[in-house]
Write a structure and sequence with these properties.
Layout lengths: L3 E2 L2 E2 L1 H21 L1 H7 L5 H30 L1 H22 L16 H32 L6 H30 L2 E2 L5 E2 L1 H21 L13 H18 L21 H16 L4 H7 L5 H6 L6 H31 L6 H28 L14 E2 L6 E5 L3 E5 L4 E2 L11 E6 L6 E2 L14 E2 L3 E9 L2 E9 L4 E6 L12 E6 L10 H24 L6 H25 L5 H24 L6 H11 L4 H5 L24
Helix pairs in contact: 1-5, 1-6, 1-7, 2-3, 3-4, 3-5, 3-15, 4-5, 4-7, 6-7, 6-12, 9-17, 10-15, 10-16, 12-14, 13-14, 13-16
Membrane topology: Multi-pass membrane protein
Subcellular location: Membrane
Main location: membrane
Length: about 650
């Protein structure tokens, strides 16, 4: 008899807290991952996008492995424990990889050994993918195991609270971790605080593990009972092999190619697999939706870094989970019933098609925003060009001749041209010393006369710089706009006029397109997600036998993984010159895929799995009482015995 509180097993409270902490850990880390690639490891947009989507794809493939381990070997409890340890180690490893001081021997704020940080971060991400994917199919099912048959109402409430914890963890983490990243930290130099942004999710994962272990004495733990996916794969494999052996025209054709498994496998299992394959066939076009959807964590995040907006940047990072929590009940309780009352046949497959079109419109919106952003960007040199910056610190105008015949007229303390391509999603500044002696500037190295500092990244807003030479000093203040780049020319009279003679040259203007313009694309993609993802799972489960839900969930997760792999391929091989063109390419592909899917849906015939199963059982001569006890996992006919009761399957 398990201990209860308010009619609920006490053990589920540990599971709910565990899920909240784990989701906070995962989504918090993912919220700043592409920014870590871009601005810490200094990868370009395409490489950062590719690695991000490779990681997400791996996270959606490993649940299949986790389900097989739990059902066939360790059981759900041990699988959660062991893979959570792997998960926590991965998060800690990832957090350590973001500490720039580990390899910053010259203390300039930049790691000296990027190979070390890259290797450590890749190891961390692989461990995280194994952990988060491996426990994904186990935690919810393990929570369901804690309830007894008379607690069906409490079980439904548990799953509602469980889903709420997932969204709450996602919402809070995507709100908090970008704020943590914006802080400054470091042992020797102060930089954007990636260790804090990744460290907090690591701590939450450790807490998640500790909380789950703390309730171990109260859990109902079931033994592994076999995985239905393995039986399905063996049956399909035998049917293909048997059909190939009997490919000669002398053998009579059979109604369905799965009927070639009749010699060895139970007819009920074959009928169930036929129903599953019918749904899996409809999954073929679905990866393209995920190709677009998951780019809100990569391409759209990078797009936001080229825009302006302080509070809105926090809002944008949380808009998807907020809209999910808002739109799901609105769609279920208002929109769909209203459409039904109007006499329109808005079937699940039609909803999914419309969801795809909403996602395509989201990328058209993103393309329009990108076009506006591109209008504000400077003209950078191509890969075959370079630029030169000439600074005049002399007291009069100078005429500079650059071979062969280019003449530049530069006024005193003026600048001509720009030196090279600059990352426009940060703020940087450079000081040129026109003073007659060495100068010390706050947070910068000493500058010799007629020398310059390196471009230095600074945070948005007002910043103060103190210039010193011996006992002389003055303070210089400047308000920085996000995305801008400045050169400050220090004259020989800098101390006599209290830094007022410092000349500012704006190499690059601040970002001017506001982040609020991204809200329509987030609204459209989230509407598409509600109509596509939620409806798709509901449709899949209604069209397949109860014991095959894990197989369908595995197929659904594979569509997500393939979608992320498509992004990886396009990012590495596409190399379109303009980002807006890539957005339109993805939108066009999804429109084409949605047309194909709608044609497939038109010819699809909805079925009642329970009715088909009953008909097959009737043909086998089973009585109704025996039908209830029919085994979920069909063993091979030559085995000594079969199970008499249904086998519980892990929900992926």
């Amino acid at each position: 008899m398990t201990a209860e509180c308010c009619g609920y097993p006490i053990s589920i409270f540990f599971i709910v807290v565990n899920e909240f902490c784990e989701r906070f850990s995962y989504y918090g880390m993912r919220a700043v991952l592409v920014l870590y690639f871009r601005y810490f490891l200094l990868w370009d947009d395409d490489l950062a996008t590719s690695i991000y989507h490779a990681f997400v794809a791996l996270c959606y493939l490993t649940p299949i492995l986790g389900a097989i381990i739990a059902d066939s070997w360790l059981g759900k409890f041990k699988t959660i424990i062991y893979l959570s340890i792997v998960y926590a180690i991965g998060q800690v490893t990832m957090a350590i990889s973001t500490i720039h001081d580990i390899t910053d021997a010259n203390r300039d704020g930049t790691p000296d050994n990027f190979t070390f940080h890259i290797a450590l971060s890749m190891l961390g991400l692989i461990l995280i993918a194994l952990g988060t994917g491996g426990i994904k199919p186990c935690v919810a099912a393990f929570g369901g195991d804690q309830f007894q048959e008379h607690q069906s109402r409490q079980l439904n409430t548990f799953f509602s609270v469980f889903y709420l914890c997932i969204n709450a963890g996602s919402l809070l983490s995507t709100l908090i971790t970008p704020v943590l990243r914006a802080q400054e930290c470091g042992i020797h130099t102060q930089q954007q605080c990636y260790p804090l942004a990744f460290g907090v999710p690591a701590v939450l994962m450790v807490i998640s593990l500790v909380v789950f272990i703390a309730g171990s004495g109260m859990y109902v733990k079931t033994d592994p009972e076999g995985n239905i996916m393995w039986s399905v794969c063996k049956c399909i494999g035998f049917a293909i092999k048997n059909r190939f052996r009997h490919r000669s025209s002398s053998y009579p054709k059979r109604e369905h190619w799965m009927d070639w498994a009749n010699e060895k496998y139970d007819k009920l299992l074959i009928a169930q697999i036929k129903m599953v394959l019918k749904v899996l066939f409809l999954y073929i076009p679905l990866p393209m939706f995920w190709t677009l959807f998951d780019q809100k964590g990569s391409r759209w995040t990078l797009q936001a870094t080229t825009m302006s907006g302080d509070f809105v940047s926090i809002l944008i990072s949380t808009v998807n989970p907020i809209l999910i929590l808002t739109l799901v009940p609105i769609m279920d309780r208002l929109i769909f019933p209203l459409i039904q009352k109007c006499g329109l046949n808005f079937s699940p497959l039609k909803r999914m098609t419309v969801g795809m079109l909403f996602a395509a419109m989201a990328f058209v919106s993103a393309a329009l925003v990108q076009i506006e952003i591109d209008k504000t960007l400077p003209n950078f040199p191509s890969s075959s060009e370079s630029q030169l910056k000439v600074v005049n610190t002399y007291s009069t105008t100078l005429n500079v001749t650059i071979s062969p015949n280019e003449h530049l007229l530069i006024e005193s303390f003026g600048v001509q041209l720009h030196t090279s391509k600059h990352t426009y999603s940060t703020i940087s500044c450079m000081f040129v010393n026109g003073y007659t002696a060495d100068l010390n500037i706050t947070n910068l190295d000493s500058i010799e006369p007629s020398a310059t500092t390196n471009y230095t990244l600074v945070n948005q807003g007002k910043r103060d710089f103190v210039l010193r030479h011996g006992e002389q000093w003055c303070e210089f203040s400047r308000k920085f706009g996000f995305g801008a780049s400045y050169t400050f020319l220090i004259p020989s009279t800098v101390f006599s006029d209290d830094c007022e003679s410092i000349t500012e040259v704006e190499d690059m203007k601040p970002n001017s397109v506001h982040m609020a313009l991204q809200i329509p694309q987030y609204f459209l993609i989230t509407t598409g997600e509600v109509m596509f993802s939620v409806t798709g799972l509901q449709f899949s489960y209604s069209q397949a036998p109860k014991n095959m839900k894990s197989v369908l969930q595995a197929g659904w997760l594979c569509t997500n993984a393939v979608g992320n792999i498509i992004v990886l391929i396009v990012a590495e091989l596409g190399k379109l010159p303009k980002q807006w063109a890539e957005y339109l390419l993805f939108a066009s592909l999804l429109v084409a895929v949605s047309i194909i899917f709608s044609i497939m849906a038109y010819f699809y015939t909805y079925i009642d799995p329970a009715e088909i199963e009953a008909q097959v059982r009737k043909e086998q001569g089973l009585e109704p009482e025996e039908m209830e006890k029919e085994t979920i996992e069909m063993e091979e006919k030559d085995e000594d015995q079969k199970n008499e009761q249904g086998v519980k399957q892990t929900k992926i």
